[in-house]
TrEMBL record:
PROSITE patterns: ALPHA_CA_2. SMART domains: Carb_anhydrase. CDD domains: alpha_CA_prokaryotic_like (cd03124). It catalyses: hydrogencarbonate + H(+) = CO2 + H2O. Belongs to the alpha-carbonic anhydrase family. GO terms for molecular function: carbonate dehydratase activity; zinc ion binding. This is carbonic anhydrase. It comes from Carnobacterium alterfunditum. It holds the Pfam family Carb_anhydrase.
Length: 232
């Protein structure tokens, strides 16, 4: 079912496009939300989140209005353990500007690492991004801006990624339960959003803006749900 980020089929009208979109939005707590240290319900242990990421070949594609990177191998090499449950990475994609706000601040870009458990439960790791002209210690430093064009990304460009280098050095994170941020906006989704940012060179960020454009869902109501912050 066709949807968009602007116009009659934009986010404000997603729930009117079809019954599946309406049901998803009305039956689950929605994402993204504003994350504010002043509204934290409780702290949780930083040790409750464990990454087991490895260098992996990813294949690019362009759908749902953005660039996606999916592991080429069928082996479940990259996992996250959260609250004693293991989730397997299946997709990495990008939103501009950031979907979550952190302490009232929005960021130029946010990427999502989408994971799924053997019981089909979802966990998404959100990483907000700032521009920098200094040499980056991330795989994005080596990405050719031309590779982000839909015609190129859609051809299945293969990219080796060392995932641990995409994460911020400070691993403090927020946790809450919400939904996917693209239709159908199904929940529940366990969200992990880092409080600190990683960096992307300015030229690459501009290439994302040119290729992807505005692809962020507006903030959703918190609805009294608990929000947790890990001890740092």
């Amino acid at each position: 079912m066709e949807w968009n980020y602007q116009g009659d089929r934009g986010p404000e009208n997603w729930n009117t496009i079809c019954s599946a979109f309406h049901q998803a939005e009305s039956e689950s707590l929605q994402s993204p939300i504003a994350l504010d240290d002043d509204q934290i319900t409780a702290t949780i242990s930083q040790q409750s989140l464990i990454f087991d990421y490895n260098k992996t070949l990813f294949e690019s594609s362009f759908f749902n209005h953005t660039v996606h990177l999916s592991p080429k191998t069928n082996e479940k090499l990259n996992t996250v353990i959260f609250d004693h449950k293991r989730y397997f990475l299946e997709d990495l994609h990008f939103h501009l500007p950031s979907e979550h706000e952190i302490n009232h601040e929005s960021f130029p870009l946010e990427f999502h690492l989408v994971h799924r458990s053997v019981k089909n439960e979802l966990l998404v790791v959100g990483v907000t991004v700032l521009p920098s002209e200094r040499p980056m210690n991330t795989v994005f430093a080596a990405v050719d801006e031309r590779a982000l064009h839909p015609r190129v990304a859609g051809r299945g460009l293969t990219v080796p990624i060392e995932l641990t280098r995409l994460l911020p050095e400070n691993k403090q994170f927020y946790h809450y339960t919400g939904s996917l941020t693209t239709p159908p906006t199904l929940g529940p989704v366990e969200w992990i959003v880092f409080s600190q940012q990683t960096f992307m060179r300015q030229g690459l960020l501009q290439a994302f803006k040119k290729t992807v454009g505005k692809t962020n869902r507006p903030l959703q109501l918190i609805m009294n749900r608990p929000i947790y912050l890990s001890n740092n």
